[in-house]
Amino acid sequence: MIASKTQAAKPKVGFYGFTGCAGDLLAILHCEDELLDIFNAVDVRSFLMASSEVHDDEELDVAFVEGSITTDHQLESLADIRKRSKVLVALGSCACFGGPQTARLGYGDWKERFKKVYGNTKHTVAKPFESRPLDEHVKVDYYIPGCPIDRYQFFFALTRLAQGMSVELTTFPVCAECKWNENECLLLKAQLCLGPVTAGGCDSRCPSHNLPCIGCWGPAAEANVASEIDLLKERNFSAEEIVSKLRLFGGAAMVRRFADLLGIKAEVPARRPRPKKVREPVVAGKAKKKSPSKRPAAKSRAKKR
Ligand code: SF4
Ligand code: SF4
What we know:
Structural class: alpha/beta
Mean pLDDT: 82
CATH topology of the largest domain: Rossmann fold
Helix content: 25-40%
CATH superfamily of the largest domain: NADH:ubiquinone oxidoreductase-like, 20kDa subunit
Low-confidence stretches: 272-305
Number of domains: 2
Shape: globular
Bound molecules: iron/sulfur cluster
Strand order of the largest sheet: 2-1-3-5-7
Oligomer: single chain
Largest sheet: 5 strands, parallel
Number of strands: 7
């Protein structure tokens, strides 16, 4: 349960969405059992999907932003949100890594790809450009990956940020959760599973249903990348097959990490340098504390679902 606060002490929070399917914001709205706790713990100043009452000229303690950036209008809004927010959190894989709409980032001119799909359509509302994750444009303090996000990771992050603490989410790969769930390994059955290099936190949903992981949570911090590539090559998967799978959800972030090992020329633009140390939130004036262990065991989380 998220701790309740008095109105005066409540941190101001905003939820925003750009290019994507809105699945992460919907995942939050679908937390029926916890929504009251969330609204008790923080002062939600903007959440268009939940309320038409928005206060988009105010300073925020925390902004949660979903989706990648695809137009000049979105970029302006993102810059404004960044300016008004002490902490900016990328919500979901599109915001964190670009998502499926950045699957071809860095491969030729996006206008050619646009023309193939839309012909000579004129842009009348906003000026589009190659879709990119948030941190290609502004500083991002924290990343909550997922397609969509996992509600327990969101609660964990919101609770910590609402109390002025830092957030560190899962660093191990999907394989760890897959082992805890005692699944038979699909890689050993010659299926192209991205579990070894994909961030855990989804409770190995796909391998648990006998489907190989397609990397929708983006790259894992603790992945043995070289070993995964060797394993896949041993099973006769070509570099093109592997990279196309990696791009599907991981977008630019996955390909940057794998291009050298796969011996491909990714031509993905360099990422903006991340801050060495994430900026601590200044919510409610609390002191910085160390992160606790990140998640309950996969089995006990599975029971809650
Ligand atoms: S099935 Fe996939 S996620 Fe599970 S252990 Fe094998 S490689 Fe890892
Ligand atoms: S594709 Fe991979 S990361 Fe995405 S839900 Fe399935 S197992 Fe998890």
